[in-house]
Amino acid sequence: MNQSAQPEAAAPRVFIETYGCQMNVADSELIGAVLRRAGYAAAVSPEEADVILLNTCAIREHAGDRVLGRLGDLARLKHARPELRLGLLGCMAQHNRAALVEKAPWLDLIAGPDSYRRLPELLGRARFDPAVDVRLDRAETYADIAPEHEGGVRAFVTAMRGCDRFCAFCVVPYVRGRERSVPPEAIVADIRGLAARGVKEVVLLGQTVNAYRRGETDFGRLLRLVAAVDGLERIRFTSPHPCDMSDSVIEAMATEPKVQPWLHLPVQSGSDRVLAAMERGYTVEEYLGLVERLRAAIPALALSTDIIVGFHGEEESDFRATLELMAALRYDSAFSFKYSPREHTRAFKLGDTVSEEDKGRRLAEVIARQERISLERNRGLMGERFAVLVEGPARRGNGMLAGKTPQFKTAVFGAADSIKPGAIVTVRVQSATAHTLHCALV
Ligand code: SF4
Asked: What fold is seen in the domain 13-133?
């Protein structure tokens, strides 16, 4: 909920805490809009809120543990103020509702990702008894609700919800339900509003965003519709699935200048055996072929990925194959994770065959390998020029500004006060680390 908005007198105040991915951040903006319509105002801290909502993630066990710890803190707040209403929303609510009722009996509300439209009614009911609503709805896209986007030069816009892929390790199809695409008119209207407010870049979101389809509009067509919005400068999307990377999407990326040369393309493993066990739907050869096509069509493309180590049955040779794939493709960056079995998934029944020690060692090796590659790639950019979308002061200060190149690399540079967030400036790379390009304004 937009905290700069003025609370109406006596309106109940709500504080939303968000965990997990960008989809959850976008959902919190949607929840803010639903509650605003119902007369709630934004609270600036949990201490001054009448309602606290945790919008949660169930992808990894670690995320759930953090939320449970936080619920313990909030229980103390509720003990001091019994009229405070505490709600748990999102994927964890959907995934662990039974356990949550037992572990956190002080919760007033548990609601899944398809129940946000009913939140005002549920909060009303929660005054008297705990309210639980985790119905999944194959049609819900919230297309008629304009999210309360946070300010900034970049905004995240949900293009599709849910997932039909059912990878063996993943809870998303169970907690977010089946795939459905937001009507293109609603997406474009939202983005027009954002551009009018000075947003320069949008990131279209979906669990398999490139599987987007609404009537005749596939994801390639959607990219072109969004690109036609005046005032918008840059478009990105995340996360695409390799199997849905159609010619139409590649062509839109290659020919539409606003679509940035950056792609987060999760591979998960470099072993065919593990990919088959994960039920990812592609082989290593097919993935390599796709990257070759992408790089041929979009020469400036930066590529990042997700890698899981220690999946059920992963042998040392499978893990070595992942390292080889990394060496062959030389990703610009990678997010790597240790496999942890998630209840309700197909892989959960298979069990966990790789020891924690081996998982830890493999993860450290993947991270070290990627750090080296990222550093080499970034150093290879020294002397090159990039158009950077300015975001604001650099995190380490010193009067420097920071922004993103088209390849979504962080560029830091000294600049005059006259350069404001949202400006696009040209910089030249002078030095680089694995994560940052140090630049001079041209
Ligand atoms: S594509 Fe696979 S990993 Fe991605 S959200 Fe769907 S089931 Fe999960």
From this structure: Rossmann fold (3.40.50)
